[in-house]
Design brief:
about 20% strand, about 850 residues, seven-stranded mixed sheet
């Protein structure tokens, strides 16, 4: 025996009754398209009978398509099913189905229907779920079933941010046949449960029961009692220890409300049970942390932070740039595009104030291509734009019914692409990186990997804009604070030296903490040998240095100053930048070859001018250095002195003769090179113009293809929905045919069992059907159907029937008479019209009763 739904969820019977008796019932918004009928069959099959809720079904339908979905759903659930109507109050125990040709919303618990305008509406699920979140708050439930695009992703975000419950379908016997819609919602991170369709009803019932059971004890606005204060303090401690954020200053009412929501969602046995769960499951701590940070959805989330960006950063990015310059901005983890378009709107508004503004490129990336599809479309429910002023909506959006589309001028600033900020190579030479509310989803190690990547991507003095609950305190050597309150930072000019683990033979101040000091007054042979070797290395080994794979020096030997010099400007540890004149180019080339190939590189015959004016010929050796325990590869750079230094005058005399000979050859090579260079420049300019033209054409083609693809996707959804309903209608017709066949069999059986001589005739006496008794009177066979009854020998005259039948059909009432038969018997003949008046095939049932046999 299968357990009941409440038993599976562990519900107490008292709590079950509370679900039934509650005054405020949940409203479940169900979004589906391709494959949705089968998914809804599984969903409604799993809804517990005790769940007192209302259900609203939203699908993708064409304007003129007549939907049979209410009739189909009526056979799948015992609940009352009806087509939604404008102004109808939503009542529990009822399933409302959105009719075609309109967009549905909800206000004050009543459904609203708005006719579709001229533009094609492709996001009805987002529109309804967003309206449901705004109207019902914590009582809203969003369910995303099988479907073929990203519709619903914005809707579940709105419901989650207003405290409601969100579910998306995962694979089971009822689908999803097309997984794009539920996957797109799952990847937003705002879905509470990825669940099989037939188990969603149990989840909803458990959530409602837990919410009702907790309601009488919830005093979110009151000062916590002593026990409650201890409980909250421990929650604060767990969050601070595991995620590094202190919520003790968080608004108490909001904190307790979000905490109660998590308790009800996970089905914990009260606060103590949830506290045990937090102690045992670090993943739940992360989920609670993210739930606490969720705010109400809007385009300019944290309005004050965007205003600070507008006044402190955007003018500096645009005002000092020429029209030929390009301002580059990156928005990693852009999700469905709200943050991207918020930045684009601010930039465009400032660009309109400039006479000749620079170009702006906003690179928006995310790992979820379905979310990027939603972002590229730029279509959002109008209710979703509550934080956008009417002036900005009029200037930067195109309103189409209950939706608003981002204007083309704003979308043209944005380029969307799939990209992982932790796995793929980053963008470079960026003026601004807006990475808001991504780090809260990452662990400490991932954050330590992310921030250096963002610093690398920025230009010197580029800006970093992060979320209000994030910080860069661990990387103050990479960023300096511009506005701490609004989380605006600026990249420092130079990257500090790389910190490495200790390696053998390295000097402790460079590589890390100093080990134990050597004992003094050492008299052993090993200590003496160590002292001699140290002295010999210091005086007789060639100058050398150790560098990282980025070329930064982490160790110098003695006498290295002969080959290095302090360069003016910003201090640097890049070895090639500090090399003396004549050595810098060769050193930089050798380092690059050795680092890229991880191999030994040697350069001979390099002339270097020493600090005292003499010239030294050296050999440069760069080789990989085996350093177990180092975080990254190291390379040894050795400056081998090939000969004794020469005085400047002698060196110049030796070089003079060589210089004169080589100069003539160099002049000839220079002339030829100039000619070739001029030809290359001309070819480059021509190719550049062609590339620009091709790029513009490709942009145009891409926009056209994108528009065509959107239309095809919408048509595909409508076609799939129509095909499903046609399949349902076909199933109904097949059922009706089977019923008719059964009816014919029953009728034949009934006729066979009757001892009445009856013949079904047309108006011209042609036989359509007859009973066995009639066959005996007239001598009929089954093959005689369609022949005239007058062709058979009858015991009574039949000519009068031709006159009587039209009268019976006209009056639509029976006629009866007694006729003398040729066999001496008397027959009662009764005529009854068998078809309704006006039928294309009128018929008469003629019954013949032998009165002699009755006597």
């Amino acid at each position: 025996m299968m357990p009941g739904p409440n038993e599976r969820c562990g519900l107490d019977p008292k709590v079950q009754n509370a679900v039934i008796d509650q005054d405020h019932f949940p409203i479940v918004g169900i979004g589906a398209s391709a494959g949705g009928i089968e998914a809804m069959q599984g969903f409604f099959r799993g809804v517990p009978e005790t769940l007192r809720a209302a259900f609203v079904v939203v699908t993708h339908l064409g304007r003129e398509h007549k939907s049979l979905l209410p009739d189909v759903l009526a056979r799948l659930t015992p609940l009352k099913v009806e087509a939604a109507a404008d102004g109808v109050p939503v009542e529990p125990g009822t399933v409302y189905v959105m009719p075609p040709g309109c967009v549905m919303g909800i206000a004050n618990g009543r459904l609203t229907l708005t006719p579709l305008g001229a533009a094609r509406e492709t996001k009805p699920i987002d529109i309804f779920l967003t309206a449901l979140a705004l109207d019902q708050g914590e009582r809203a439930v969003g369910v995303i079933l099988s479907g073929g695009d990203g519709d619903g992703a914005i809707g579940v975000k709105a419901i989650k941010e207003h405290g409601g419950l969100t579910l998306a379908q995962t694979a089971d016997g009822y689908g999803p046949e097309t997984a794009d819609m539920p996957l797109s919602s799952l990847r937003t991170g705002f879905v509470d449960f990825g669940e099989m369709a037939e188990h969603m009803g149990d989840r909803i019932a458990a959530h409602v029961a837990a919410h009702v059971a907790a309601a009488p004890d919830a005093q979110v606005d009151a000062v916590p009692r002593e026990h409650d204060a201890e409980f909250l303090t421990e929650i604060f401690t767990i969050l601070r220890r595991q995620v590094g954020h202190d919520f003790s200053g968080y608004k108490p009412s909001t904190f307790v409300r979000r905490l109660q929501r998590r308790i009800s969602v996970v089905g914990a046995a009260g606060p103590d049970g949830y506290l045990k769960l937090l102690r045992a499951d670090p993943a739940e701590v992360g989920v609670l942390f993210r739930d606490l940070l969720i705010g109400v959805t809007n385009f300019f989330r944290d309005t004050a932070a965007f205003e600070a960006l507008t006044t402190q950063v955007i003018p500096k990015l645009l005002d000092a740039r020429a029209a030929t310059d390009v301002v580059r901005i990156w928005v990693p983890a852009c999700s469905t595009g709200e943050e991207v378009y918020s930045l684009a709107i601010l930039l465009r508004e400032h660009m309109l104030t400039l006479a000749d503004p620079p170009r702006v490129q906003i690179f928006a990336t995310d790992i979820d291509e379905r979310a990027l599809t939603v972002a590229r479309t730029g279509r959002y429910p109008s209710a979703y734009l509550s934080a956008v002023s009417s002036e900005r909506i009029a200037q930067h959006f195109v309103v189409e019914g209950d939706s608003a589309v981002v204007a083309k001028a704003v979308r043209d600033l944005c380029t969307f692409a799939p990209h992982s900020v932790l796995r793929d190579p980053p963008f470079s030479r960026l003026d601004l990186v807006s990475c808001r509310n991504l780090m809260i989803y990452l662990g400490i190690e991932a954050q330590q990997q992310l921030l250096p990547v963002l610093h690398y991507a920025l230009r010197p003095r580029g800006y970093l804009f992060i979320g209000m609950s994030e910080n860069v305190t661990r990387f103050e050597d990479l960023f300096e604070t511009i506005d701490k309150q609004h989380r605006i930072f600026q990249a420092r000019d130079a990257i500090p030296p790389v910190r490495l683990r200790p390696i053998s033979g390295a000097e402790p101040p460079i590589f890390g903490s100093v080990g134990q000091a050597q004992r003094r007054n050492v008299t052993t042979h090993a200590a003496l040998r160590h002292a001699v070797e140290t002295q010999m290395l210091s005086e007789f080994t060639p100058p050398h240095a150790v560098v990282t794979r980025t070329g930064e020096a982490v160790h110098y030997s003695s006498r290295i100053g002969d080959h290095l010099e302090v360069v003016p400007g910003q201090p640097t540890r890049e070895l090639a930048a500090m090399a003396r004149k004549g050595l810098r180019l060769d050193l930089r080339t050798a380092l690059r070859e050795a680092i890229e190939g991880n191999t030994l590189v040697v350069r001979d015959g390099i002339g270097v001018e020493l600090p005292d004016g003499r010239f030294q010929s050296i050999s440069l050796v760069v080789k990989p250095l085996n350093t177990p325990g180092a975080i990254e590869p190291l390379f040894l750079v050795v400056f081998k002195e090939a000969a004794a230094p020469l005085e400047k005058e002698r060196q110049q005399a030796l070089e003079a003769n060589e210089r004169d000979t080589a100069l003539q050859g160099l002049e000839r090579e220079l002339s030829v090179t100039r000619e070739r260079l001029q030809a290359v420049i001309e070819e480059y300019e021509t190719s550049l113009e062609e590339l620009k033209s091709s790029n513009e054409e490709l942009h145009s083609v891409n926009e056209e293809m994108q528009a065509a693809n959107e239309e095809l996707e919408a048509s595909k959804e409508e076609t799939q929905s129509l095909n499903e309903e046609l399949q349902t209608v076909n199933f109904e017709l097949s059922s009706k045919i089977e019923a008719i066949d059964q009816l014919i069999d029953d009728q034949a059986t009934l006729f066979e069992g009757m001892n009445v001589a009856s013949v079904l005739l047309t108006s011209d006496l042609r036989i359509r059907m007859f009973t066995s008794a009639a066959a005996q009177i007239f001598g009929l066979q089954p093959s005689d159907v369609g022949r005239s009854l007058r062709n058979f020998s009858a015991p009574i005259p039949l000519t009068w029937l031709l006159d009587e039948i039209p009268a019976v059909l006209r009056a639509n009432r029976p006629s009866e008479r007694i006729v003398e038969g040729a066999d001496g018997a008397r027959y009662r003949v009764r005529l009854i019209a068998s078809s309704r008046k006006g039928s294309q095939m009128p018929g008469i049932v003629a019954s013949f009763t032998n009165l002699l046999e009755q006597e």
